[in-house]
Amino acid sequence: MHVLIIEDDAKTADFVAGAFRQSGYVCTICADGLEGSVAALANDYDAAVVDIMLPGKDGLSIIRSLRAAGKNLPVIVLSARGEVDARIKGLEAGADDYLAKPFSVAELLARVQALMRRASRHAESTVLKVEDLEMDLVSHKVTRGGERISLQPLEYQLLEYLMRNRGRVVSRNTILERVWDYDFDPHTNVVEARVCRLREKIDRNSPRKLISTVRGVGYVLG
Questions:
Q1: 40 and 104 fall within a common domain
Q2: What is the pTM of this model?
Q3: Residue 174, domain extent
Q4: How far is it, in rounded angstroms, from Cα 222 to Cα 209?
Q5: Neighbours of 218 (CB within 10 A)
Q6: What is the pLDDT of residues 110-119, one digit of tens each?
Q7: How far apart are CA 47 and CA 56, in angstroms?
Q8: What is the mean predicted confidence (pLDDT) over 61-76?
Q9: Are 76 and 90 in contact (CB under 8 A)?
Q10: How does pLDDT run across 1-10, given as a tens digit for each residue?
């Protein structure tokens, strides 16, 4: 995990960076607002700690630039101004959290870790990916190698379940219960038929076949 610290007070920056490094993070320190803005826009960081009062470019302008550029990394503001109006301005600029100085470095670390966990959960819940197969859970768009794949609702649900259980063999019984939501009928071939149609759509134009049958057990994707 790589954290960007934009703070012009060398003592504060070293103190904050030391705490993060002790917890296993890599830190980059920028003491100037312009330098920090360039670094934030040019590199991929997991989080940023940004002071407001900075030489060259203020912290709120840095955050606005990040959001305008589509950078969604978690950002926490550090500021000597702790009044409500200042906090509101920080959040309106695009900050995810705001901590007034003086602050507890343990609290700062805990807040940044919470923001990164939240960002990680959001990313994982939005897009599923197995090799070159992608499923966007918001738009319901499915692509393989960049090419759009049209799926019926049950095919989509079946593929989502297989992708969420990548590398794990799932039985017909389990698929019926989790995807179709009814008890297993040993005489039905609905699962086999749907998997066959889904495999044709997913694997038809790709040399690498992602959906496999484990005879007598079930199916596995990956």
A1: yes
A2: 0.56
A3: 131-221
A4: 8
A5: 18
A6: 999 888 888 7
A7: 21
A8: 92
A9: no
A10: 899 999 999 9
Of 49-58, 125-134, 137-146, 179-188, the range with the lowest mean pLDDT is: 179-188
Sequence-distant contacts of 67-71: CB under 8 A, at least 24 apart: 67/93, 67/94, 69/41, 71/40, 71/41
Q: Give CA–CA dist 110/104, Å, rounded.
A: 10
Q: Quote the mean pLDDT of the chain.
A: 88
Please tell me whether residues 154 and 107 are part of one structural domain.
Answer: no
Residues linked to residue 5 through DSSP beta bridges, in sequence order: 29, 49
Same domain, 56 and 82: yes
Which pLDDT score is estimated for 173?
Answer: 83
pLDDT over 80 (residue 122): no
86, 110, 125 — which closes off a domain? 125
Q: What is the 3-state secondary structure (H, E, C) of 118-131?
A: HHHHHHHHHEEEEC
Work out the average pLDDT over 29-40.
96
CATH of the domain at 158: 1.10.10.10
Contact (CB, 8 A) for 93 and 60: yes
Of 74, 97, 125, the residue that ends a domain is 125
Q: Where are the beta strands (DSSP E) in the chain?
A: 2-6, 26-30, 47-51, 75-79, 97-100, 127-130, 133-136, 141-144, 147-149, 211-214, 218-221
Residues recorded for the chain:
222
The enclosing domain of 107 has a CATH number of 3.40.50.2300
> Is 70 exceeded by the pLDDT of residue 82?
no
Whether residue 38 is found in the same domain as residue 109: yes
Q: Which residues contact 84 (CB under 8 A, 6 or more apart)?
A: none
Give residues with Cβ within 8 angstroms of 19, minimum separation 6. 105, 106, 108, 109
